[in-house]
Amino acid sequence: MKQYVLLAGLLGVAIAQGLNGVPAAYAGFAKWEKVATSGLPTGGPHAGQAKVVYANPAALKEWKSGRALPVGSIVVKTAGPTRAPTLIATMEKRRSGWYYEEYFPEGGRYVLKFGGPNGQQLCVGCHTGVQAKDFLFTRP
Ligand code: HEC
């Protein structure tokens, strides 16, 4: 059991290192549940890419309930290969509401390009369209 936990920990670190530049809280998405892999809306800024949406355990618990997701929920959308995505978009439920960030690979690491402390409005503009689903497009 101990070895298993250690191995899982090391794997987590390995994955996190592969996503250099992405905050640790988001970098572990590959271990979370996939909540959407196909049938994603074709519109939007990332149209036409092979996208996957992951929900952390807190988000997963309420994903299908119709209720607002709890503080601590994190939803990550990636495009491209799981271990080296060409896009990592994140939504984190904070006390103040959803917080949005979007990372792209550049020069061997991931760089925050959109969203973030000064860029929330861009993301909010679109996601407000699905306010009734707690701002999540792919939620049922
Ligand atoms: C032009 C509209 C638009 C803008 C702007 C936009 N999104 Fe989205 N977003 C979508 C659509 C549509 C989806 C559904 C999945 C898909 O088609 O990619 C989505 C899905 C997501 C998801 C998966 C959870 C969900 O809602 O289903 C995340 C995470 C996300 N967006 C993050 C962001 C971030 C971060 C930004 C700002 C940097 C942003 N989005 C800006 C339209 C938009």
UniProtKB/TrEMBL annotation:
Gene3D superfamilies: Cytochrome P460. CDD domains: cyt_P460_fam. Residues 28-138 form the Cytochrome P460 domain. The keyword Transmembrane helix does not apply. This is Cytochrome P460 domain-containing protein. Residues 1-18 form the signal peptide. The keyword Thylakoid does not apply. It holds the Pfam family Cytochrome_P460. Keywords: Signal.
